[in-house]
Amino acid sequence: MAERGRPRGFDADAALDRAIEVFWRHGYEGASLADLTTAMGINRPSMYAAFGNKEDLFRRAVARYAEADMAYAREALAQPTARAVIETFLRTNADALTRPDRPAGCLSVQGGLAGGSDNGHIAQFLADSRAAGEKALADRLSQAATEGDLPSDADPVALARYVMVVSEGNAVHAAAGATRAALQATVNIALKAI
Amino acid sequence: MAERGRPRGFDADAALDRAIEVFWRHGYEGASLADLTTAMGINRPSMYAAFGNKEDLFRRAVARYAEADMAYAREALAQPTARAVIETFLRTNADALTRPDRPAGCLSVQGGLAGGSDNGHIAQFLADSRAAGEKALADRLSQAATEGDLPSDADPVALARYVMVVSEGNAVHAAAGATRAALQATVNIALKAI
DNA sequence: TTGATTCAGTACCGAGCGGTACAGAACAGC
DNA sequence: GCTGTTCTGTACCGCTCGGTACTGAATCAA
């Protein structure tokens, strides 16, 4: 497959990484195309040719974010015991929420919570994305339950929801400027409920 | 003080209540003046004469929200024991987040988390508002500690932060459509850490 | 070299944004 | 009556929004 025509003058993945940061910092509606294209180092028509439109760009950004910036979550799920899964997830999550080389908080939360009139499906999309993570955790904890790795009275679905609630609450705190130590101290307390 | 001039044709407090719901559902930047004034039943100049501008209206809305819709928090602080304070707060909070006659979630979280370029001070204002609530809870728990009502190794500041993290995480879940029962089940688990 | 194809860049579109000028309507005191 | 004052309503302001037409430039195959 030979490439024809003028070659693209920018790296699409690198541009997407810049877009992630803008969406992360400003949210979906708070990120204007001027913000985005300036950060991406390209102009508007190039962005439209490469990604479709603003919403498509956002979905691509969230997908790449989930794959790259949330790799720690998949590693946590691979831990041998339910306790290790939860603790690893919450600890690495707290670190990810306060990475000094990244915006504070979580794109999936900051991207957009409210949404009623027009872009309600953006909030829905992010909620579905978070729910998928919660379900993966619930499935992992269900497996632990069948393996006898969890107290018999434990509810894997409720437990997964609790872990995600702590994670999302920490994301809200991180977005407000909480320190890594503060988030880890919260994790210390949260783990006592497991 | 006699009133001169044409009397106002609407109830400012009632209009503010309508504005609260719009901000609650759409967030600060997602709520347009057209949305707001339509819901308030007034036109633009009336709103500007009564409240100043959009940001002033939002601050007034948040203040009224804190006073009316979050009265349960002050009642929780008045409980006799630290345990009762925390449990009452989390339970009434979970109910408030899922009131059928109100938007799901919490205005203070939904109003705006991200904010970088222009309206960053809106996110900051809301973060300060939440921090004030967290400090009030920490003060109450400090008092409990001096009264011997809390384990000697407990950190009131960290504990207050944990409670607020659970509350805010539940707010994120509520905004995504979680049921009241789900939130209360999360509270059940969260309380085991106390 | 030529023609086809694809990207880059400028300049622009209609629509909606927050905010306001201005004219008229409704009240008070005189 | 009239006058001063305050509210209502229409119509408008400049600006930014997301999105696009169009001209050139850069690369391919032939």
From TrEMBL, chains A, B:
Keyword Transcription among UniProt keywords: yes
Where would you find the membrane-spanning parts of this chain? none
Alphabetically ordered keywords of this record:
DNA-binding, Transcription, Transcription regulation
Q: What is the lineage of its organism?
A: Bacteria, Bacillati, Actinomycetota, Actinomycetes, Micromonosporales
Q: Which domain of life is it from?
A: Bacteria
Spell out the protein name for this chain.
TetR family transcriptional regulator
Which ranges carry the HTH tetR-type domain? 9-69
GO molecular-function term, one example from the UniProt record: DNA binding
Q: Which Pfam families match?
A: TetR_N
Q: Which PROSITE patterns match?
A: HTH_TETR_1, HTH_TETR_2
